[in-house]
Amino acid sequence: MSEPEVDESGVLLEAREIVKHFPIRTSQGKQLVQAVDGVSLSVRSGETLGLVGESGCGKSTLGRCLVRLLDPTSGQVIFDGVDITTKSRRELRTLRLGFQMIFQDPYASLNPRRRALATVEEPMLTHSLGTDAEIRARALMLLEQVGFDPSFADRYPHEFSGGQRQRLGIARALAVAPKLLIADEPVSALDVSIQAQVLNLLSDLQRDNDLTYVFIAHDLAVVHHIADRIGVMYLGELVEVGSSTDVYTAPRHPYTEALISAIPVIDAEAEVRERIVLTGDLPSPIDKPAGCAFNPRCHYAQDICRTDKPTLQLLDDGREVACHFPL
Ligand code: SF4
Question: What is d(CA 216, CA 210) in angstroms, rounded to the nearest whole number?
Answer without folding.
Answer: 19
